[in-house]
Specification:
Elements lengths: L1 H15 L1 H8 L5 H27 L5 H25 L5 H8 L2 H12 L6 H18 L8 H21 L3 H4 L1 H22 L13 H25 L2 H4 L2 H17 L5 H24 L2
Length: 291
Amino acid sequence: MKKGIIYIVLAAFIFSTMEVVGKMIAGDLNAFQVTFLRFLIGCVVLLPLTVNELKKRSIKINKDDIIYFILTGLLCIPISMVLLQVSVGYTKASTAAIMFSTNPVFTIPFAYFILKESIRKENIYSIAISLIGILFIFNPLSIGGGIKGMLIALASSITFSLYTVISKKRIEKYGGIIFNFFTFLVGDLVLLVILIMFNIPIIKGVTVSNMPIILYLGIILTGLGYVVYIAAIKETSPVVASTVFFIKPALAPIVSVILLKESITFNVIIGIAFILIGSYIGFRGKQSQNI
């Protein structure tokens, strides 16, 4: 269990840097480039682990699997992750991170309609309290700059929730490593087609100075991050490991203040508090279901 806690803390820190590091490179490369390169490198990192898992599980990928991975890959990479990278160009990295961290809230209704999972009273409380938090962050009484970025980050969160629910249908069959690798690979191939179709440059803008950031996004965030998160699930449980997304909305603003010198307004602090409370209630509800 101690090893599991270490994995959870490490995964939470890595994922909390996603929007911050993405913000650092937003001025050099467009969102499509950053996302493509990030997941291309991530696939290279996961490849040897995936080959080993395929042999161990004796899994052969067929046509039906490929169609499934096209769906999950499309939702995750060219839609959700591109939207998240676009959002940091219009709002603070901390705000985008908080908006994205609300994805477990939207998972609940998607799971109800798609997976026919029951909705408990804790789920309702979690959604309501988290939505209050989102409202505080949007601050409708004094809408200023960044509203476009907030909406894009929220769209990223919602589409990621849909991806999460759809992934539940088969992730047990493949295992985390295999599932993530093929989702990333197929999603990145779809993104490559989009880049070619719309004449979007692939490596233009990549320089010696921003290469370390690109490598961090690919190796640490996309490769190591998911490996550590899957290790956390194995050492604890899916419910306990999900605390990673409970920690992120609290940790990401701190990272953004330190690395980007961003300021956190009072209404955002209140919003974070509501989202943390809502996430905690949802987490406790999951725990009680798994007892």
